[in-house]
Amino acid sequence: MLISLKPRSQTEDLVGLLLDCHQRIRTFVRLAEEVGRRTDLRESEVVDACQRCERYFKEGLPLHIEDEEKSLLPRLGGLGQGVDGALATMKAQHLEHTPLLLALLDALRMVQLEPGAEPRREHLRHVAAQLRTEFERHLSLEEQVIFPAVRRHLSRDAQSLVVQELRARRRPSAKPPAS
After folding, report:
1. CA geometry: angle at 27 spanning 124 and 30, to 5°?
2. Which residues contact 170 (CB under 8 A, 6 or more apart)?
3. Contact 111/121 with Cβ under 8 angstroms?
4. Using one digit for the tens of pLDDT, what is the confidence trace for 98-149?
5. Which domain holds residue 117?
6. 30: domain CATH number?
């Protein structure tokens, strides 16, 4: 197996959960890049890794974006120019990432169809490398500006409510608690 993921955190620390999400983003984009780069992998390993990446970027990443836009943005908006600017940049970058994410998903599907095709793997590596660069800029901004604002400005009760919302988004039939 190319990577092994840590079990999901059961922490109630909001910033810790968000950082765990960021680590998963970094892990899966690196995995996609590695699948594209490495020539020593069995085809079954390539297909498995591509399926895992595809599942994460279709299911996991959209949940994280919802967490930020529906739970953090409304609570942190209006705290000052620095935080407001970071929130606006965060939201704009979520939209800007869409074409690259779609290209990555397409490349992952193409490699799954022909896991031994070097041109397809090279294309996957190229798209994943671009996305890794974009994500790193994005994640660093959140980690340097937005997450410290969460710790400074959201009460323990507000952070606990956000954690409940995050967890509810990941339960299939549950609705987030009322804010």
Report:
1. 30
2. 63
3. yes
4. 999 999 999 999 999 999 999 999 999 999 999 999 999 999 999 999 999 9
5. 14-169
6. 1.20.120.520
